[in-house]
Amino acid sequence: MFYLKLMNDSSQQNFAEQGAAFQKIWLESMSKVMQAAFAFSPNSAPPELLREIRNGILQALGESWNEFMRSPQFQENMKQWMENAVAFRQMSHDFMAKVRKEMQAPSCEDIDAIQQNVRHLETRVLDRLETLSKQIEALNHRAGAVKTATHKPGKPSAPRQARSQRNKKVRTS
User: Fold this and answer.
1) Is pLDDT above 90 for 90?
2) Are 13 and 77 a contacting pair, CB within 8 Å?
3) Radius of gyration, alpha carbons of the chain
4) pTM for this structure?
5) CA distance linking residue 87 with residue 80, whole number of Å
């Protein structure tokens, strides 16, 4: 509704003026092209003549397009077109949000929030796994150091000595 109202207002107010300005720019550019095409020196060779015509046409077209795109009418129309495009996008976004709400489906914001929460959870779990991995590695390192320190060749290890002393006490009792 909003989009149609904007189109009707702008087209009714400026359509004739915009058409006349556009026609004026095109007539000027075509006259420049024709002047450039036939402004050559009679002493030039035919290939050089064609290059001069081509360069003149391209220069005239470039100037006319530059003038056209810098004209206030073109810039105003582009501004209106962009505003209408933004309004249409917002209107379609609102419409789709209303449809999702009526269907009791999750909205885009709900899905984005869930994705963000899952990413945070994944980061926390990975950080915790890394911490646990470091702790296990440290425990393995300590256990290896204790094992090498207590196990000397020729002597029984400390746990064996303790076991044998307990067994002696149990036998004597």
Assistant:
1) yes
2) no
3) 43
4) 0.39
5) 10
- φ, ψ of residue 153 to 5 degrees: the values are -65, 140
Residue length of the chain: 173
Query: Tell me, what's the pLDDT at 53?
Result: 79
Query: Which residue blocks in the chain are alpha helix, DSSP H?
Result: 2-37, 46-69, 72-102, 108-150, 158-172
Please give the single-letter amino acid code of residue 139. Answer: L
Share above pLDDT 90 across residues of the chain, in percent, rounded to a whole number = 27
CB neighbour burial string for 54-86, b if at least 16 within 10 angstroms, e if fewer:
eebeeebeeebeeebeeeebbeebeeeeeeeee
Cβ atoms of residues 64 and 28 within 8 Å: yes
Kindly list the domain boundaries of the chain, sorted by start residue.
2-105, 121-172
Report CA-CA distances (Å) from 1 to 59, 88, 96.
Answer: 44, 10, 16
Residue 25 tokens read as: 């720019």
What are residue 86's phi and psi, to 5 degrees? -65, -40
What are the tokens at 90?
Answer: 């917002």
Cα gap 56→59, rounded to integer Å: 5
pLDDT digits (tens, 9 = 90+) for 9-24: 555 556 677 777 777 8
Question: What pLDDT score was predicted for residue 126?
Answer: 95
